[in-house]
Specification:
130 residues; Carbon monoxide dehydrogenase subunit G; 28% helix; alpha+beta
């Protein structure tokens, strides 16, 4: 299952934005209002929970400066990646798009597609304002 966020314009260079997304502490600013938990586990990982949803632990799996940051689930129960693709537009402006990819059974896909799509859009919208 693949879900893409809208492309957003961010007033940071691609390098600055890639560095921002590589620092897991910054994800707290991007989280939706209905976040019930956000905790940094170490410099490469954090755990979060949205109201009514189970906790999800994410860790930085790969960084390809200045164009890509890949986060992945720390649990094998819900195997997925969250990729931030960054493109330089001007000296101090870049575009970002988030991509969620996971391998889920059809029942799980039906249950999570809506919430994940909304979650990605919120992250992308909040990213515009950093």
């Amino acid at each position: 299952m693949k879900i893409e966020s809208k492309k957003v314009t961010v007033q940071k260079s691609a390098t600055e934005l890639c560095n921002y997304l590589s620092d897991v502490k910054n994800f707290e600013q991007l989280m939706p209002e209905n976040t019930s938990k956000f905790e940094v586990i170490n410099e490469k990982a954090f755990v979060f929970a949205l109201k009514g949803m189970p906790e999800i632990a994410l860790e930085v799996k790969e960084v390809n400066p200045p164009n890509q940051v890949i986060l992945g689930a720390m649990s094998d129960k819900l195997p997925f990646t969250l990729t931030g693709n960054v493109t330089q537009v001007a000296e101090e402006t870049s575009q970002a798009q988030l991509l969620f990819e996971g391998d889920f059974n059809p029942m799980m896909k039906m249950m999570i597609k809506g919430p994940i799509t909304k979650f990605l859009e919120t992250l992308a919208t909040n990213l515009e304002t950093v």
